[in-house]
Amino acid sequence: MSKNEFSEINFLADKVHIHHWPLDTQKWPDVINSQVDKNINKNNLKKQLVIREKTIRIDKYEFKKIKKIGVTIPLFKKQCTLVFEGYFKDVYGHIHITTKEDNYLEIFNKIISWRDKYFHDSIESQINQIK
Q1: Torsions phi, psi for 126 (to 5 deg)
Q2: What pTM was computed for the model?
Q3: Largest Cα–Cα distance of the chain, in whole Å?
Q4: Cis upstream peptide for 29 (omega within 30°)
Q5: What is the average pLDDT score of the chain?
Q6: Cβ distance 92 to 86 under 8 Å?
Q7: Structural contact between residues 88 and 61, judged by C-beta atoms closer than 8 angstroms
Q8: Percent of the chain surpassing pLDDT 90
Q9: Measured between alpha carbons, how far is 99 from 94 in angstroms, rounded to an integer?
Q10: How far apart are CA 66 and CA 64, in angstroms?
Q11: Which of 10, 16, 39, 98 has its C-alpha lying 20 to 30 A from 80's C-alpha?
């Protein structure tokens, strides 16, 4: 996929965990905590992920205002992990996603291309904060 091409990225996540973050943002109401735990964090079913331009949908949860996107392939594992911060249901969260799909390398490469196209300053801004 060239830098100018982008098509929607779809895959199944084996594990998703969402929690309140950053700490200086509005605390989650109990109802959101309960919904996220029931639907995502404590639900062991695979979750459908759809990445489009500047949004990520996990089942019925849509995340906007995405930043601090990290993508890795852990050593000695056949899986891809995506981590990011995003805004949903009027609150902010930190999201961890793991897929063990057979095409995890292809998913990794597509996510990197997507991040480069829509969030090209994501890496550079993180590197500059370290310096």
Answers
A1: -70, -40
A2: 0.87
A3: 43
A4: no
A5: 90
A6: yes
A7: yes
A8: 85
A9: 17
A10: 5
A11: 39
Q: Which amino acid is at 46?
A: K
Tokens standing for 35? 């919904």
Write the pLDDT tens digit of every residue in 47-92. 999 999 999 999 999 999 999 999 999 999 999 999 999 999 999 9
Residues 46/112, Cβ–Cβ less than 8 Å: no
Q: If you average pLDDT over residues 105-112, what whole number do you get?
A: 96
Structure tokens at 92: 């902010």
Distance separating the N- and C-terminal Cα atoms of the chain: 31
Q: In the numeric block, which tokens belong to residue 38?
A: 């029931």
Burial 86-114 (b: 16+ CB within 10 A, else e): bebeebbbebbbbbebeebeebbebbebb
